[in-house]
Amino acid sequence: MTITIEEETEVTFTFDYCKLAEEVITFALDEESFPYEAEVNLTLVDNDAIWEINREYRNIDRPTDVLSFPMLSYQTAGDFSDIEDDIEGNFNPDTGEVLLGDIVISIPKVFEQAEAYGHSVRREFAFLIVHSVLHLLGYDHMTPEDAAFMENKQKNILNAMNILR
Question: Whole-angstrom Cα distance, residue 8 to residue 163?
Fold first, then answer.
């Protein structure tokens, strides 16, 4: 598995966030029984940068906490049976890994939301990664049913990792 982490802003976490990111991404993919080695890019930014990305790609004129840019298309979320149908488009020819996608996280939002929700910065960072990995696997929260399903998956993954509120 290749996880690339880029810091485009100062990251002042008091824990090893690179190690945590790798552990969370790997664990979430294992929990979802993702059958391939994967490439995931994680970019850590400030509110201005994520605001700009939101405006450019989502027509949202505000900063958000996390953005996910999946590289794969799914007929059904969590169904990986069609990935090999497009070897050239879905796999890195140099590594053989599936190009899963990109995650962008606003570091200031991690701190803001940890305080607002009354849990640790570590837990909020891990939560945003799990949330985004699920998006990379085709899950979404556009309907109340989908949101509840995704929230349950997030909770189960974090609980299994003992990353609690």
Answer: 26
